[in-house]
Design brief:
279 residues; 8-stranded mixed beta sheet; alpha+beta; D-amino Acid Aminotransferase, Chain A, domain 1; 14 strands; 6-stranded antiparallel beta sheet; globular; D-amino Acid Aminotransferase, Chain A, domain 2
Length: 279
């Protein structure tokens, strides 16, 4: 896999350059934040929105981020070393740094997008529901649960995807204990119902607010649709006019089955992908 590595205050270095100390809290405790964004035409798409979300995540962790200008420069350095005509994934990472104190660790990588992720834009994905173990609206009142923060603590997310693979499906839709659909481990749920393009409300549920989904809903009128934030139960998605998982790297992937029930294909998938620049 092709990869570029850039370090804060240093710039682009060989991709195999050591970056983290053995006692870095990002490694020991997952204590840090990150953002991943789509690189197109040599530029990170929606960089401003991703940096806004990174700032919100850092605030929830009481983590001091480098200045926004420094992060913009870091992202630019990494993308400048990536082939301008090649699709890529830019990841900005900031950890709390060494266990015994010291400056935060910040770096950026650009990497190729896995062929399977690109193929899923056309083939769609089979999804199984799995409980997240919390009520739909508990996390905003429990800040220690870090609802809405994109942290380095992704063990549950990855375990969910391994479980999905064991079930013979490609992804998971997390569900609250009171029966509402929330989000996928690395993507945002979007669905179309009676001309309304919907996603789950992040403020009341504590899901991670998706930047790609936000852009889509902001431009729903360009598709002749309205936009809304709603709670939904998985069974209701069976009668939707389209169900998708939206993420920065994979783009828009149609859900073709949910818990073994066939969905779609939706005639709107190609139009939405073109609006987002993934088709």
């Amino acid at each position: 896999m092709a990869r570029v590595l850039a370090l804060l205050g240093v710039g682009v270095v060989p991709a195999d350059t050591p970056v983290l100390r053995a006692d870095d809290l990002g490694v020991l405790r997952g204590d840090g934040v990150f953002e991943t964004m789509h690189v197109r035409n040599g530029e990170p798409w929606l960089l401003g929105a991703h940096l806004d979300r990174m700032s919100r995540s850092a605030a929830l962790l009481a983590l001091p981020l480098p200045s926004r200008a420094d992060l913009v420069e870091l992202a630019g350095q990494a993308c400048a070393a990536w082939p301008a005509g090649a699709e890529g994934a830019l990841r900005l990472v900031c950890t709390r740094g060494p266990e015994d104190g010291g400056p935060v660790t910040a770096y950026a990588t650009v990497a190729s997008i896995a062929p399977a992720a690109v193929a899923a834009r056309q083939s769609g994905v089979a999804v199984a529901t799995a409980t997240l173990g919390v009520p739909a609206e508990v996390r905003p009142d429990a800040p220690w649960l870090l609802g809405g923060a994109k942290t380095l603590s992704y063990a549950v997310n990855m375990a969910s995807l391994r479980w999905a693979a064991g079930q013979g499906v490609g992804d998971v839709l997390w569900v609250s204990v009171d029966g509402y659909a929330l989000e996928a481990p690395t993507a945002t749920l979007v669905w179309l119902a009676d001309g309304v393009l919907c996603t789950v409300p992040a403020q009341t549920t504590g899901i991670l607010a998706g930047t790609t989904a936000a852009y889509l809903l902001e431009h729903a009128e360009d598709l002749g649709m309205r936009a809304a934030h709603r709670l939904v139960r998985p069974v209701e998605l069976r009668t939707a006019d389209g169900v998708w998982l939206a993420s920065s790297v994979r783009g828009l992937t149609e859900v073709r089955s949910l818990d073994g029930v066939a969905l779609g294909p939706s005639p709107e998938t190609t139009r939405i992908q073109k609006l987002l620049g993934y088709a």
